[in-house]
Amino acid sequence: MQKTLDHLITLQNIDSQLQQLEEDRGDLPQQVKERSQELEELQQKLQTKQSQKDVNEKERTSLLGEAELQREKLKKYKSQLYQVQTNKEYDAITTEIDSSTEKIDEMEFRALELEETNEALDNEINDLKEGIQEKQQQLDVLKKDLDAKMAQSKEQEEKLKKERQEVVKNLSPQMLNTYERIRKARNGVAVAVMRSGACSECSSRIPPQRRLEIRNMNQLYVCEVCGRMLVWDESEESNIQSEE
Q: Per residue in 170-181, pLDDT tens?
């Protein structure tokens, strides 16, 4: 059991160093992630606005084309007015003229609506493009800072990860699962040291008899208060002897 506890101590030291490297990067990774998501959302909005503008422009072009065809028909109908010989023919042509005129008005009004809508979309698209450019610049700066910090700690991080892989091989799956579960629940610290008769992490006092048992390193004990694994710190041996 002592070897297992020694491996747990080593593993905790490695994980603490890895966690410190991560903390040294600050919130840069999170900022990069957030800016990337914001940039993606803006790009999607831009794509949606641009697609809507294209659809509107296509409809507007089609309407103007149809309106032009109706004008040609209107000219034809008006010219036919001078050729009619009966009231019935006159009424029929007049009806067609009115119908064509109404259709032209409706299509031109709709085309005007689409033009105004696209003008508004143009303003939104320009704002989105400016926002995208600004977000991209912010993201580039953050990535540059993060890359610089990553480069500084990359070699050390890779070394620690290799060491961790070797240490993990010496632990049973059950023990490793227990360690990982506690570490996840306790802010990255699963192994606490008995220091001056107390848990190094939560400072709760440990009964004298339990201190002796922990000192022997023959069994795994957990802190009754914080639930972390408790191990012996040899540097505190003189303190324990004086207390005894």
A: 999 999 999 999
